[in-house]
From TrEMBL:
Keywords: Membrane, Transmembrane, Transmembrane helix
Protein name in the entry: O-antigen polymerase
TM spans (from-to): 12-29, 41-59, 71-90, 120-143, 155-177, 186-209, 221-242, 309-332, 339-355
Keyword Coiled coil in annotation: no
Keyword Thylakoid: no
Length: 390
């Protein structure tokens, strides 16, 4: 069998964008006091994305004719930029969070992969490798008491537990649905599942359970029910010993909230309910303004929901256009690639945007760009025919 070899430039390209926030360990970062690393991080983002462009894309393709989908997405993203700059200047509230989306998504609008058929999946292989190494680094950091966050959350090199947990779940989905069965595949599944658990991110853990549930359901429904019930029983009987304290607190807060108790528990859980109440209040009080301009007197609205962040910042009209495009392109990825993996990726993005402003965190926009661009070509990918070379 002829083996298709792929250069190690792809692992290096993903390593750069996934490792920026390790700089915090050398800058005296404090969860309570924050950090003055804004400018260094910004410069590192630009450099890492520039390196990613040179290693992953054919930069000469910027002069070539683009696909219609690239033009449409480019117009919507730039529409958001012009709107935000104008609004920020008018209100005197500059904000760079939208820059993370621009920096990571624009290359997919302007450029083409060097080899569409292979490199999307080789990049996913590289992402799994980098994330696995970062989980091992986080274990070392945890054991030696060097964690940046008070709850000792695993954050990899992306600086945020929710973002790292989401990327870990994308890797877990890839291992479950694409990788050939092998011993090292199962080792990686266990390692990444462990990493997800120790992000102490409730949504990440729920996504992990969703990943396994969907995977086993497609294999054997009866077995899935048995495994699920057994897992729930084991979880409830041993969670005091197995789960990190912060994660136990989050789950207990969620249960309290579901039972109607909003006065106690995790503030981050109850806040996610409050921001949706705020949305309905705004849409009732200033309907036209919310539809076309977002929330009043706010240039960039920060909320634990990507949907509400963009509605509050850009207005309902722009947000509907943006998310409709993104989800349509993700759907095309499902159809073109004929793999349940992309269905799971689609589900995770849709759900994650309800509870996290994911695209404000670098490099989630790159993962999104990778996902939507995978549907811009017919895939004939076979993982068993790909290896790495120097």
């Amino acid at each position: 069998m002829k083996i298709k070899k792929v250069s190690l430039r792809l692992p290096f390209s993903i390593l750069g964008v996934m490792s920026l926030y390790y700089i915090f360990y050398f800058l005296g970062f404090s969860e309570k006091e924050g950090s003055d690393a804004g400018l260094p991080i910004l410069l590192l983002k630009i450099v890492s994305v520039a390196a990613f462009i040179l290693l992953y894309f054919d930069w000469r393709s910027i002069f070539q004719k683009k696909r219609a989908v690239q033009y449409i997405l480019l117009i919507v993203v730039l529409w958001g930029l012009i709107f935000l700059v104008t609004k920020s200047l008018y209100l005197g509230q500059p904000d760079l969070k939208y820059f993370n989306l621009l920096l990571t998504l624009l290359p997919f609008c302007l450029l083409a992969n060097r080899n569409q058929e292979v490199e999307v999946y080789t990049l996913l292989n590289s992402l799994v490798f980098v994330v696995s190494i970062q989980i091992l680094i986080d274990i070392y950091i945890f054991i030696n008491g060097f964690s940046l966050w008070e709850n000792n959350a695993f954050i990899g090199g992306v600086g945020n537990a929710n973002a790292f947990g989401f990327i870990c779940n994308i890797c877990l989905s890839y291992l479950l649905y694409y990788k050939q069965k092998s011993f090292h595949r199962y080792v990686l599944i266990v390692l990444i599942s462990f990493g997800i658990l120790f992000t102490v991110s409730m949504m990440s853990v729920l996504f992990m359970l969703l990943n396994f549930t969907l995977y086993f359901t497609r294999k054997n429904l009866l077995l899935t029910i048995i495994v699920l019930l057994t897992s729930i029983a084991v979880l409830f009987s041993t969670y005091e010993l197995l789960l990190p304290e912060h994660l136990k607190f989050k789950f207990e807060s969620l249960l309290a909230l579901l039972s109607g108790d909003t006065a106690t528990g995790s503030r981050s859980v109850s806040l996610r309910v409050e921001i949706y109440n705020t949305f309905f209040e705004n849409i009732e009080r200033a309907t036209i303004h919310v539809i076309f301009f977002g929330y009043e007197n706010i240039a960039y609205y920060i909320a634990d929901s990507q949907y509400l962040t963009y509605i509050g910042s850009f207005g309902l009209l722009w947000s509907v256009c943006f998310f409709s495009l993104i989800f349509y392109y993700l759907y095309i990825s499902i159809v073109k690639n004929k793999s349940f993996f992309w269905t799971v990726v689609f589900i995770q993005f849709v759900l994650f945007f309800f509870v996290n402003r994911a695209l404000d965190y670098f490099p989630i926009g790159l993962i999104l760009g990778l996902a939507i661009s995978s549907g811009w070509h017919e895939s004939k990918y076979d993982d068993s025919k790909v290896s790495l070379k120097t």
